[in-house]
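Figure 3 (text version): structure tokens given as input.
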């Protein structure tokens, strides 16, 4: 199982333009936590409302990843 950081770094390698921001916003205590999928990393590693992009932006990314099985 990959850690949150591994998932987000992989997203960056695959060219997701939001990956840098997700890494920046992620709570440092969550980065080493194991996670089953990328969508759950987005959902659980930071508070959407406390970001510049806001809740709608991150929730749309979460839903898109979830619909693709990521």
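Below: residues designed for each position.
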């Amino acid at each position: 199982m990959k850690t949150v950081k591994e998932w987000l770094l992989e997203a960056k390698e695959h060219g997701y333009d939001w990956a840098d921001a997700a890494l920046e916003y992620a709570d440092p205590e969550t980065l080493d936590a194991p996670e089953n999928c990328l969508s759950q990393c987005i959902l659980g590693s930071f508070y959407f409302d406390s970001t510049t992009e806001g809740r709608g932006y991150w929730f749309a990314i979460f839903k898109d990843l979830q619909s693709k099985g990521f």
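The first strand starts at residue 2 and ends at 3.
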